[in-house]
Amino acid sequence: KQEVTQIPAALSVPEGENLVLNCSFTDSAIYNLQWFRQDPGKGLTSLLLIQSSQREQTSGRLNASLDKSSGRSTLYIAASQPGDSATYLCAVSGNQFYFGTGTSLTVIP
Amino acid sequence: GAVVSQHPSRVICKSGTSVKIECRSLDFQATTMFWYRQFPKKSLMLMATSNEGSKATYEQGVEKDKFLINHASLTLSTLTVTSAHPEDSSFYICSFGTVYNEQFFGPGTRLTVL
User: Fold this and answer.
1) What does the pLDDT look like over A16-35, one tens digit per residue?
2) Separation between Cα atoms, residue A73 and residue B3, nearest integer Å
3) DSSP label at B59?
4) What residues of chain A lie within 8 A of the CB of B34, using their CB?
5) Most buried residue, A60, B54, B74, B108, by CB count within 10 Å?
6) A&B contacts, CB < 8 Å
């Protein structure tokens, strides 16, 4: 069974710092990997989708990479802002979607 | 991205009652929908996968008679929690999509059973 792990579980950084969130998965047979943001008590907002044939995707200050063979993905956030504070979830798709446990990010003004 | 709505956003009910949650895709049609539940500070747990016009496929440990899923059309799916109990209190989220492409999530429904 696919297992998805996110490290760290929580992260606190001062505003303006660049940061990296990590996602690892045990089964490399995936169709795609998706990064989400979840604000407290809210649903999920899709940030980036990387197909299995792709290596990275960029959107604004966000860059996600995928190394399928090693079972890893990173989400890079440049010049962090307090509004980036949220929980970030990664999910990989195989015969279903498997979610990581999330990284709770706090950006301190 | 696609817009998905859920109704209600929040519901409080007495133990023993049934609660229906609607999930609508507003701007696209999808044959496949997913229902998740999320406990506080935990990740999403897939409950079931439904395909339009057919019975839902439930994950192990999810009671199909308790969590009734109806995927009546390409833009609407409903989850009914029957005879709800306090342990059913959770955050329920739906999504449209397939495993091959992007998933689009609803805003979630907070269910509290007293």
Assistant:
1) 999 999 999 999 999 999 99
2) 26
3) P
4) 96-97
5) B108
6) 55
Token pair belonging to A91: 């999910």
Q: Determine what percent of chain A is predicted with pLDDT higher than 90.
A: 85
Whether residues B105 and A45 touch (CB distance < 8 A) is answered with yes
- Using an 8 Å CB-CB cutoff, list chain A residues near B103: 34, 46, 91, 93, 97
Which tokens in the block code for residue B66? Answer: 């308790």
**A contact test, residue of B60, B100, B103 with most A CBs within 10 A:** B103
For A1-109, strand residue ranges (E) read 4-7, 10-14, 19-25, 32-38, 44-51, 56-59, 62-67, 72-77, 86-93, 97-99, 103-108
Residues in chain A: 109
